[in-house]
Amino acid sequence: MNRLEDLLENIGYSPKKSKIYLAILELGEASILDISRKTGIKRTTVYNLIPELMADGVVQAGSRKSKRFFYIDDPRSLKTGLDMKIQRLERALPQFAALQSILPSKPKITYFEGLGGARELFADTLTSCNSGDTILDYAGLTDFDKLVPEEFSNDYIRQRVAKKIRIKVIAPDSPLAREWQKNDVKELREIKIVPGKDFPFIADAEIYANKVALISFKENFMGVIIESPEIHQLHRMSFELLWKFLK
To answer: Residues in domain Transcription regulator TrmB N-terminal (predicted)?
Structure first.
């Protein structure tokens, strides 16, 4: 019986309504008093809940010798009642969608950890962009080559170039930044190097599509992608403003 009670609760019936329904089903015909004794639920509560089950079409009422009783004509009415609710919900879905469209959109945030997370995050920068798009990148390269295998980095560059996705990079001065700069043309990259002493940032930010990825290479890879047109626009405009004034 407990399994059936759980099932009824899973489709939206309260514990008390579930007990009342099953008591009527088991008794065949039952008065308010019969149901109360069978379930241990107070008669006043049974009296108040029975009309709700009748409104759902799953319990019927009859009378004999001036005594009112309740019965279940066919347990399959449970499914019929659910089908009717689903139909009403489907008819109302356009109204829910319309309501959602007028509410402020919330950013979608996804977290990534470890080398596996790094692969997923950087893969997203490629799958989210179209050929000819440009990724904007604040590249803190101090710990980059310590945590990201060279093979992975080279493979990412090959995929990006094959898809014709360009990248603009602002990076603190470092041997790796200088090495990247030498290969700018063939790797569809344009890098501007800033003094490492004045701008020693070690994290990374990728600005692309309608997303901003924030990445830390300190000790272990940790990243987050924020998908929001408003946040993306702010970071893109800030990057472009800085880019304009850098040599």
So the answer is: 8-73
